[in-house]
Structure formats: structure tokens, C-alpha cells
Amino acid sequence: MNKTTYQRLEYDRIKQRLADFAMSYLGRAHIENMEPKIEMVMVATLLQETEEAVSVIAHGASVPIPSLEGIEPLIGTFGKGFIFTPQDFMHFARFIESTQQLKSFMKKKESATPRIASYALSLYDLRELLAEIRRCIRNGQVDNEASAALSRVRKKMNILDDRIRKKLDTALSKYHSYLQESVVSTRGGRYVLSVKKEYRKQVGGAALDESASGQTVFIEPADIADLHVELLHLQAAEAAEAAEETRVLSDLTDLVEGNKYEISINLETIGYYDFMFAKAKFARIIDGRTVKLNDRGRISIHNGRHPLLGGHSVPLDIHIGDDYRALVITGPNTGGKTVSLKTVGLLTLMVQSGLLVPVGEGSEFAVYRSVMVDIGDGQSIENSLSTFSSHVKNVIGILKEAGPSSLVLLDELASGTDPGEGIGLSIAVLEELYRRGATVMATTHFNEIKKFADAAPGFENARMEFDAETLEPLYKLTIGQAGSSYAFYIAQKLGMPLALIERSKQITYEATQRSPEAPAIAAAVTGETPVKVPLKEKAERAPMPNFAFGDCVWVHSLRRTGIVCSEPDHRGNITVQIQKEKVRINRKRLSLYIERSKLYPEGDYDMDIVFESKDTRKKRKQMSKRHVEGLTIEYKENQ
Length: 639
Prior knowledge:
Blueprint: H1 3-8, H2 11-19, H3 25-32, H4 40-57, H5 71-75, H6 86-107, H7 114-118, H8 127-136, E1 137-138, E2 141-142, H9 148-174, E3 179-187, E4 190-196, E5 205-210, E6 216-221, H10 227-258, H11 260-286, E7 292-294, E8 299-304, E9 316-320, E10 326-330, H12 337-351, E11 364-366, E12 370-374, H13 387-401, E13 406-410, H14 419-435, E14 439-443, H15 447-455, E15 459-467, E16 472-479, H16 487-493, H17 498-512, H18 518-526, E17 552-555, E18 560-564, E19 573-578, E20 581-586, E21 590-594, H19 596-599, H20 608-611, H21 614-625
Helix pairs in contact: 2-3, 3-11, 4-11, 6-8, 8-10, 9-10, 17-18
């Protein structure tokens, strides 16, 4: 699994959708780190967890997952000498209370959901810590009963404050008619009244300040001057209160950090619960269900939907991994070929991540060690890579890793380069991936690749259905038949002049009528559905063709003719001379072009004239008469 696979199959978009259902930062962290698992037992466990979580919320149950609000920054300060504030302890109290609620909730679900309910057994109650926080912190402040010393100092402060307040109230009442405003303020730590300038003589006491305009004089009346001493006592009491509050908060901080391990286990468990129920909520949205698993490369999807396309997408039915392990999909542009590949790939990644997927009952998925894709144009201006170069680079990377437990998805084989060479390269890649035991799905427009898939053991064709009347794709995959691009038909229906259509057909026929692919191309041109033997009868098809020495054959991968110059070996490989070179090709890749009897005169024709040069024939004649020292004949053959 790699980032390219995730990007091309939009796995990251699934994770983004999933994160919307998480309640906590830890749940979102699990989603961010989520990746497909490659062990079948682990995948089965994850799917069971999600299925149980779905059953919990199926009837509208509200799972009390703690939001962990305010907890994240506090955990990072453990052991660093920070003293938590009263508000911090309120966060811890809510966290402990909600943890207890979650544990109680899951205990009630033990019989119906044994696996996920068992995780709640690891949650610590932390009852003693919660009781101590409640005793010391009330309404966001350190409570009077947090310590005996704090209780005493606050009682003393209340007495002093009450005594000062009564004397100030008496002074305000006594001098009310002389004041600018009926308030008491302080100057230099002493209580003063705001007296109007003209009445300063009526209020006995010391003038400590005046307003900028000079209209107000701030006077400490003589009858409250002794409150200065009591104010100093009050300030000393406040300092003692702050010191005692700090001591209480420090002790409470130590108590919380003493439960660091239990808190970390609770956080880990809550984060995983949040993750599981986020997957359950997402499954409900996309109508996901659990599936069967296997490690044999078998995929059987019934009514599968791409999870990002919504409920209006056409269901996909696809099967691979029994009678064939490689599937070549054809059909018109925008017909759904690429979406089919992406659907299979994305659903596979989701299943291996423990996500329920939108498929029908009885669907089955293989668990792969790697899912590799070459989907999309991938052209990079930055790296100066053409479309073809980008495809080749991706395929080279795939070939380095592909094996028996690999799912390989290839889009638009042979695109971006000369069709003849691209087709040959594509067929060679398909053969190699199949030889390595990979499960392969590929899309193409080329008839040669369709014909290869039709003939090669372990390969099968499929097509995307197309409505010829409305010119609209049906997005339905039919396995067992190759499809057409419908180029001529679509062009004609869209109004292209009939003369141009006929000329196009003529050019196509002239180019292909001598080719063994002609029947398939003709079927595509006329819109007729080619007849195909059902899959179960595939083994009963015509036997592998035999070719006689001197037959002219068509080489599919090279799109050229050659002359047969050897009998087939035990593997069916034949030597074919193409111009002046001899190459070894399996007879499955050949079709009879012109029989020997139609090429050469009747009778005992000397085939050496065809296969050997004049110089070689001269040497052979000399050697047949006598021994010539140093005379040799060299044969070269390309494998």
C-alpha cells in the first residue's frame, strides 16, 4: 500500500468523511493513522468490531463518548512542574464522570456486543480522584473546605471585610450630601470619599488627592482613618489565602499526575471507542455491511456501490478469482470502466481497514498484501513526464512488488503511445503479472488486447453496457463478453456525414481485413454483439491451432506477418522468421495468415531459399561435398 494508491482510489476522502463522525481529538487521530491491514484475522476482528458498533446505534442509542474537551493540552504538561487551575480540574472531573458513564453503558451491552463491550473493562473508575476534585473545587474555585487553614483564613477575611464595609457604609450615609458620587475608592492603600470642592471643610480628615479639574477632592474622613490598619490585616489575609490555594492546587495536581497511567489507559480506550463508533455512523450513512473474507484472491461483489457517489450510482456486480484471475474491461468512454476499477480498489481498502462497505448480501473480498494502481493520466509538467512515460513508470513500480497476494488495477492499457508497440507492451505486462500470481483488472479500447484476454487461460473479458439509442452509458458491467468503443455509431448518431462514416469504415476494413482481428473489429464497426462461448465452456473451445513449416502467420503483439520455420516445442513455442530475424513466439499469439500451399509451388519446394541467405546456401553446398577448414554456418535466434 502506498500514497499513490490511496490518492488514486480516493481513500483519503473516505478518511475525511469518517473524521466528521468522530467526537474527540483521539478518535480523529485514529482515523488519520488508519491504514488497511494485511492479516486476515486482524481484518475479520476489525469488521466484527464495526458490525457490533452498528448494532449498538441501530436503534437510536446515544453512546456517551467523552468529547475530551480541554484535556488534550493538560496531558502534555504532566511531569513538567505545572500547577493546574481550578478550571483545569473541572475538565478532569467531567472526563472522569463521562468515563464512568461509558463504562456503565457498555456493560449493559455485554451480551449483544461482547467484543467491543470487553474493551470497557480496561476503563478505570478513578472514584477517589473524582471525590477529591469535587471536595476541593466548586463552581470553578477552590472551595473553603479544601483545607482547614484555608477555611480559617477565609473566615478571618470575611470578618475584616464585614467590619470595614459597615464603617464605610456609615461614612457614606453621614457625608452623602457632600459627595460627587456615593462610592468609596482608595488612594495609596487608604479608603477615600469623593467630596465636592466647596464642601471640603465640612468633611474632617486628610485630603489625599483631587481630580484633574479640581472640582473633586478625595478625602480620608477622620472617623475611618483607623480602617487602614484593618485593610493591611485584610491584605495579609488575602496573601495567606492565595498561598493556601496554591498549596491545595499543587497537592491536587500531584494526585492527578499520580493517576497518569490510569488516565492514559482511559484516554486510549475512549479514543478507540470514538474511532469504532465513527466507523459505525459512517456505515449507517453509506448503507454498509460486513463481508466474507478469503486469502485466495477471490472477489465477488453483488450490488456494490462507490461510497463517494451516493445512492444514485448504478450497482456493480463483479467476480474474479475462480476460473480466471485477470479481467479485461472494455466499453465506450465515460461508460464507467474507470469507476469500476476504483470501486473494486476502494472497497478492498475499506474492507481491510475494518469499514463496512455498500454491497449486497453474500459479497466476498480477498485480503491482499498490496493494492497497486495505474489509474488516471498522471502527466507531470513539473517532472517532464508524458502520459505514456508516467504509465510506464507506474507499471515498473508495480512489477517490482506484484506477487500472489497483490491486486493490480490498470486503466487504459496501451494509451499514450504508438498503438502497435503499446499493445505488445501491455500484453507482456499482463502476462507477467498473471505469471506472478497477482489478481489483475485492466481497462482498454484495443481489440488486440481483448482477443488476447479471450484466448489466454486465466483471463476473461468484460464490457460496460451502452444504450445505442440514447447514446448513454448504462454503467453496468457484463462479464464474459468484450465491449466496443462504438466510435462510428456514436459519430453517426451525433450527425457526422454518412459519407465520412462509410469512408472511415472502409479505411478500417482495409487495414484489418487481412488481420485475424478483422472479425472482432468488424463487429465493433457494425455494432453487432460478438458471440462468445460461456465461461464454463471455455475449456471446450477449439484446440490450439497447429502451424505447418512454411505457413505465413500473423503475430498479434507485433502486428506483423512472419514465416513458420520450426515445429512447436513442448511449451507450444514456434520459431517465426520476420524479415531477416527469427523470433520464438507461443502459438497462442499467432493466427494463420496464408497457408504454405498458397505461397509456394506444388511439389518438393526447397524452403532453404526462404529461410537462408545466398551465402549460407553456398556454404552448405560446399560442406556437403567436402570438408573445408574454418568454414562455419552461424544461426541466430531471438528468444
